[in-house]
Design brief:
mainly alpha, about 0% strand, elongated, about 80% helix, about 260 residues
């Protein structure tokens, strides 16, 4: 599980609760079933109306991917693995990679190298692997869009919940104490909506986009490395090319590791 994400959600919740306590507000007012119904069910309805059934039903899977701490393959190790295979192929030929491919855990790399060993044309390999990258990016984009839609709907529904609460409060103008409690309760829906939209949904969408960006970067790194191996490029030039595709901070780290070796 992605503990850092869980900590972030809990921190946001604590910020609201502690802020209310500092202001002297009654935290118990947050236990408002009516507000929860309006926000949660209303937001769910908004997402249902925005996406077809087959995409809506993917939400549990998207949440699983969001909270799952996927062990990232270090880009430095990817580069070194590609460089080592390029040395092997230059020395013993491309067919010598066949045995090494079996032990590669990365399915994308395994698929690409398998096509190289099979003698597939470079343009075909690029096309097939780029289609796979595009498909993965589209799946991630869908998840981000769902949370962005929910994040946009929740605050607006919070305002709707406040209006509904105020309508109820205006029916009890004779009881001042009860009126005060109902007005306070009315704005809980707004609080729920803003919290759910800007502390949960929009950040979740950003997290999915960032995960997608990182994964796509690794896949393009592998793609270029595979094509360079097929072209018989010098291992040193392959290493320099792949390091050049990295972010500056990643580049510095990998160059330092390479120098130590």
């Amino acid at each position: 599980m992605d503990i850092f994400l869980v900590i972030g959600v809990i921190t946001g919740l604590l910020a609201v609760v502690i802020g209310m306590m500092v202001k002297g507000a009654n935290v118990a007012v947050l236990l408002n079933p009516a507000a929860a119904i309006i926000i949660l069910i209303g937001t769910t309805a908004a997402v249902m109306n925005s996406f077809p059934k087959n995409e809506f039903l993917k939400i549990p899977k998207i949440l699983g991917a969001l909270f799952k701490e996927k062990q990232k393959e270090d880009k430095g190790s990817i580069i070194m693995q590609i460089v080592e295979m390029s040395k092997t192929s230059r020395k013993n030929g491309l067919l010598s990679l066949e045995k090494a491919i079996e032990s590669i855990p990365n399915k994308f790399m395994k698929k690409g190298l398998g096509m190289v060993v099979d003698g597939t044309e470079p343009d075909t390999i690029r096309e097939i692997l780029e289609i796979e990258i595009d498909g993965m990016e589209e799946r991630h984009r869908l998840g981000a869009m769902i949370f962005t839609t929910a994040g946009g709907a929740a605050p607006t529904l919070g305002v709707l919940g406040a209006v509904v609460g105020l309508i109820g409060a205006l029916g009890n103008l004779n009881d001042i104490e009860k009126l005060g409690h109902m007005i306070a309760g009315a704005f809980v829906a707004t609080l729920y909506g803003i919290f759910f939209g800007y502390v949960v949904c929009h950040p979740f969408a950003s997290r999915l986009k960032r995960k997608s960006h990182q994964e796509i970067g690794s896949m393009y790194l592998i793609l270029e490395g595979i094509l360079a191996i097929q072209a018989g490029a010098n291992p040193k030039s392959i290493q320099e090319k792949l390091i050049g595709m990295l972010e500056p901070d990643e580049r510095i780290t990998i160059e330092a590791e390479t120098a130590e070796r």
